[in-house]
């Protein structure tokens, strides 16, 4: 039906409807295939009553196997290698149905694939048979090495795909760690990085009269305001008030009667300093002083 070059170097495409696949007990047999077809047809009727349509697929047949692809995206849904296909037949009672049994590479179970093609069911079955004949001739010519080579290539391709997936996951984890490190080392906006000062056992900065104190940052990240300097002639006590000296107050600071009392006390204090061995107790509240 087809040239050997078309099946060996390329592939023969067909369009069909995919009813699905189901596990079977035996790798071959007409009755085995009939049971699988009845089962998948019943499931398809149920899905059709629920409004689901039978999906369309593209078949690519070559001496290496049968690929089942999405006709629009060309994504491979199933890749059935030819040396794993054990049986292929079309339904004589329903000319649109054809099937083949393939051993799954992962579960080692035999799966029956069922398709619906309105015009090409028998032709597709014969094309798969022709691919078997060509593959068997190549097997005899190579002494069986060709099949073993294809198996090794398939295993290596699967391992390469696993390593690529693992590599992409490791790259993603490394990128996440780098982003976390960058976020941890970025200082907040408006902050000034300063060298921390050494403190004593009481967590206080030691005072040095030679070197001025380094201003520390406030809790909000802003530098503290500069200290206010007062004129040297203005002195204040602990509570911020100027010290009181009753003897240096001017006459206008107190009423005349109080000011006269203070003057008498000041004169008496000066006189008491000239008397030897005499001690005066100056009490402003005592009128006898």
UniProtKB/TrEMBL annotation:
Keyword GTP-binding assigned to the entry: answer is no
Tell me the keywords, alphabetical order. Coiled coil, Cytoplasm, Phagocytosis
Q: Name one GO biological process term.
A: phagocytosis
Q: Which domain of life is it from?
A: Eukaryota
Read off the InterPro entries from this record: Adapter_Engulfment-Domain, PH-like_dom_sf, PTB/PI_dom
Subcellular localization is given as:
Cytoplasm
Can you supply one Gene Ontology CC term for this chain's record?
cytoplasm
Tagged with keyword Coiled coil: yes
Classify the main location. Answer: cytoplasm
Coiled-coil regions in this chain?
146-180
Among PANTHER family, the record links this protein to:
GULP PTB DOMAIN CONTAINING ENGULFMENT ADAPTOR 1 (PTHR11232:SF77), PHOSPHOTYROSINE INTERACTION DOMAIN-CONTAINING FAMILY MEMBER (PTHR11232)
What this protein is called in its record is PTB domain-containing engulfment adapter protein 1
